[in-house]
Amino acid sequence: MAKEFALKDQDHESSLIARRVHISAFIIFLLIIMIISRIFYLTVLQHDHYSTLSQSNRVKITPIPPIRGLIYSRDGVILAENKPTFSLGVVPEQIDDLDETIEQLQEIVSIEESDIERFKKAVKKKRRFENIPLRLNLNKEEVALFAVNRHRFPGVDVVAGLNRYYPLGEKLVHTIGYVARIDDDVKRLDESNYSGTTHIGKLGIEKSYESLLHGDVGHQQVEVNAQGRVIRVLDRTAPKPGENIHLTIDLSLQQIAIDALENRRGAIVAMDPRNGDVLTFVSSPGYDPNKFVNGIDSKSYNLLLASKDKPLINRVIQGKYPPGSTVKPFMGLIGLENGVRVNSDESWCPGWFSLKGHEHRYRDWKKQGHGHTDLHKAIMQSCDVYFYTLAYELGIDRIYEGMSRFGFGQITGIDIGGEKKALMPSREWKRKAIGQAWYPGETLILGIGQGYALATPLQLAKATATLANKGHIIRPRLVSSTSNSITNEVNALPNQSESKITLSNSVYWDDVITSMKDVVHGIGGTAWRSGLNAEYNFAGKTGTAQVIGIAQDKEYKKEEIAEEFQDHALFIAFAPVEAPRIAIAIIVENGGGGSKTAAPIARKMFDHFMNNRDLISKG
Q1: How far is CA 85 from CA 120, 143, 163, 552, 614, in A?
Q2: Which of 26, 132, 406, 433 has the maximal Cβ count within 10 Å?
Q3: pLDDT mean over 438-467
Q4: Hey, is 203 helix, strand or coil?
Q5: Based on C-alpha coordinates, what's the Rg of the chain?
């Protein structure tokens, strides 16, 4: 009998289907609950958050850069301005073939390879609907020529803007400095305030007073579409323009100094000893700052770097020179104050000096010597032997202490950056820097401003002003006031008074100043020719600083020495002696003697100043 098998179990299948339906319904119910919960979370609990995100996608805040403040001289001449400029702007998305368009543009407008390279780099970083400059600083002829051909170039247009411009070019570049495109400066900036700003001060006043000159950024709210294109402006907060800066520089006196220097390498700085106002600030040679504003080409920059004249160095605050005989008035004061000398004490000058037990002769500039010499004669005729003897008796420690009081080896504190300290050596300095003890012979040559001693022209000017003030120290400054760009309200800056050098006997000041007066007005003074027929009294001291040493048995013959190894010419002076209003320090590199080269420059400047001093003071 065959075995029977059940082909279908309807009860089991019905039960299985029912379970699956229930499970599916439960899962669907859970999913619906989850979706409803998510919708509730997004639309109710997170409404504010996503509403803000949606608004941010629709509304953008864009910066409006401020207009940079202007820079003026003390007599109201503009030295740094924002000049209207035109550039050739391109919107890439409106152009089918960029390369072909650029080639056609080159037929009517000069476009260099460097312009094309900069443009292509910018295209990669920006959106294609943004206007990107192809060529900067179009001249009037180029603007007119493009306007005639404008119909041929859809997506290309002339864009107006402002460009920093320095009307006097190289004449004040080391004072004002320049602005250039922001690069690594971003690390030291307040990014929020520099949004939209493309340039920043790099040197000089432009850098030191950047926070005042820049101003405060403005903003505008704009509505944009999904691609980020601006549809309309919703709200606008205007930027605050930068403050205007008013310098202490007198342009007429600056020009006199530049002309007198005759393009030679050197530096001239003049300041008002009453308040520290720097009247001239000349570092020669200079260079054109306008080439740096939008980026100087590599060829021109390399020429500046390779130049033997080193035009990029600010000699006034960075040039370090042996001060030579210009230190002698200060050495005289130190000798009087320390009781090593009185004004009438005499030294015998046979034309040389030797340390006891040594054969080496430290020579005087005058081969036959000066004979019996007191302090007055020593300063007036610049007797080296007198100051060899004085330096030896003072010793290095008292010399260092005394010269430091006049600011040698220290920064002056002027209101631009980059200033060098130069060097006033001491025992401790030599031990640390060279690892050697100090020798007596080094003290001797320090007494005439040679050896390790180095000073900047500004340090010499400040020390000279201190001497003219009989010890009252004033910090030099280049900015006298600021003014509001909108209201023109002037804000005068206070004088930077520092301290006072007090001597045990105030007569010492008069002793030294009288000697300096006779340098230029006395018969036999080293600069007596510069004082001839002057209608005012001025005091000065010549200096001649050796660049290379001369052997004991050799004579210095200028014609046999290459120019770069010839002596530097120096001169410090102030006028008028009775009530000083101007102090000057002059250095002419490889210019020979200070009496022949540097002192005549001072006379030209003094003549101009004394004839126009009321105008200069009011400037």
Answers
A1: 22, 10, 6, 63, 39
A2: 406
A3: 96
A4: coil
A5: 37
Q: How far is CA 463 from the centre of its chain?
A: 22
Would you give the end-to-end CA distance of the chain in angstroms?
A: 137
Instruction: Specify the DSSP element, H or E, that contains 614.
Output: helix 594-618
DSSP code for 619: -
DSSP structural state of residue 72: E
Instruction: Name, in order, each residue with C-beta under 8 angstroms of 488's C-beta and a sequence gap of 6 or more.
Output: none
CATH topology of domain 58-93+160-247: Penicillin-binding protein 2a (Domain 2) (3.90.1310)
Q: Which residues contact 114 (CB under 8 A, 6 or more apart)?
A: 297
Backbone angles phi, psi at 16, to 5 degrees: -65, -45
Q: What is the pTM of this model?
A: 0.83
pLDDT tens profile 22-70:
888 888 888 888 888 888 777 777 766 656 555 555 666 777 889 999 9
Task: State pLDDT tens for residues 72-87.
Answer: 999 899 999 999 888 8
Q: What is the CATH number of domain 251-290+312-618?
A: 3.40.710.10
Residue in 325, 480, 485, 530 annotated catalytic: 325
Q: Using one digit for the tens of pLDDT, what is the confidence trace for 391-424?
A: 999 999 999 999 999 999 999 999 999 999 999 9
Name which of 326, 596, 567 is nearest 449 in CA terms.
326
- B/e letters for 90-124, b = 16+ CB within 10 Å, e = fewer, are bbbeebeebeebbeebeeebebeeebbebbeeebe
For 308-351, give the DSSP string.
Answer: TT-TTS-HHHH--B--GGGGHHHHHHHHHHTTS--TT--EEESS
What torsion do the CA atoms of 512, 513, 517, 523 make, to the nearest 10 degrees?
-20
Domain with CATH 3.40.710.10 in the chain: 251-290+312-618
For residue 55, what are its two tokens?
Answer: 């608004």
CATH 3.90.1310.10 segments of the chain? 58-93+160-247
> What is the three-state SS of 400-458?
HHHHHHCCCCCCCCCCCCCCCCCECCCHHHHHHHCCCCCCHHHHHHHCCCCCCCEECHH
pLDDT for position 110: 86
Query: Is 267 in contact with 600 (CB distance < 8 Å)?
Result: no
Asked whether the beta carbons of 505 and 470 are under 8 A apart, the reply is no
DSSP 192: T
How many angstroms separate the CA atoms of 271 and 253, rounded? 11
325 catalytically annotated: yes
618: pLDDT confidence band, cut at 50, 70 and 90?
low
Quote the CA–CA distance of 206 and 174 in Å, as a whole number. 11
SS in 3 state form for 343-398?
CCCCEEECCEECCCCCCCCEECCCCCCCEEECHHHHHHCCCHHHHHHHHHHHCHHH
Which tokens is 20 given?
């699956």
Show the tokens assigned to 279: 């009247």
